Amino acid sequence: MKVWSISRAVGLFTGDSRALLIMISGAVLLAGWIWLQQNPQHDPLAPLDLNDPPGWATAGKFADLPGNQALCHQVLTRSNVAFTALPGVGDGPCGLPDRTQIDNPMVVPGNAIATCPVNAGLALWLNHGVQQAAQEHLGTQVTRILHLGTTNCRRINASQTAPWSEHATANAIDISGFVLANGEYVSVLQHWGEGEKGDFLEAVRDSACYSFRTVLSPEYNADHADHFHLDQGTRWARVCR
Questions:
Q1: Does residue 107 contact residue 142 with C-beta atoms inside 8 Å?
Q2: For the packed helices 116-125 and 69-78, what is the interaxial angle rounded to 10 degrees?
Q3: DSSP 8-class letter at 54
Q4: What is the pTM (predicted TM-score) of this model?
Q5: Count of CB atoms within 10 A of residue 183's CB?
Q6: Distances from the Cα of 145 to the Cα of 82, 123, 227, angstroms
Q7: What is the mean pLDDT of each run of 10 residues along the chain (241 residues)?
Q8: Where along the chain do its domains lie?
Q9: Residue 58: which of 125, 153, 115, 1 has the closest Cα?
Q10: How many beta carbons lie within 10 A of that of residue 198, not counting itself?
Q11: Rounded to whole angstroms, how far apart are CA atoms 232 and 119?
């Protein structure tokens, strides 16, 4: 009788424990679901919105954009990024099947045409990298971002045997400097590693790594002494240097 009572007690305890475990698991799952609803940048199932800050799932969502213009244009539209979709031109290694023009007066010279993923990365970087870095390190805002272009039909480093540059298909943009609201100019060439402006440049370089597959700065090599190279190439490893 005593043995039976102990066994019954153990059985009841085990049943209660399972019920408690189920309730705790349910509560944890519900809390996690609510947290993901509040932080969609960490939710791999939530649509990419460039107004959300970068999160755990952002890189994976960006990886779905190259080669899928319809999806990328949906992202720009959802994020209220003004753009113009242009017809593709050419073929071969320098063909431009994805020509998307972002309509942003901050980007100078204007009317820059690049792939949609490059423009999506640029929008995320402006929203959640550039302005925050300017405020933190320089106490002001950026009013203009200066670039050296997006398209150049050439191989990497103009070599005859190297792989084709991402610029060959307008899948990259080179940033040379920033104009601040107080009228000052920050140049990658002149101010990299120099005081507060150098700190700002390093911060914007680092933040670009959340938005682009490849980020190359003056720390990479002498060819990038005067600009940041930002691209959305599909190479197997991300590069941020």
A1: no
A2: 30
A3: P
A4: 0.87
A5: 8
A6: 17, 12, 12
A7: 50 65 74 68 94 94 94 98 96 96 92 94 96 97 97 90 95 98 97 98 97 96 97 85 93
A8: 1-38, 48-240
A9: 125
A10: 16
A11: 10
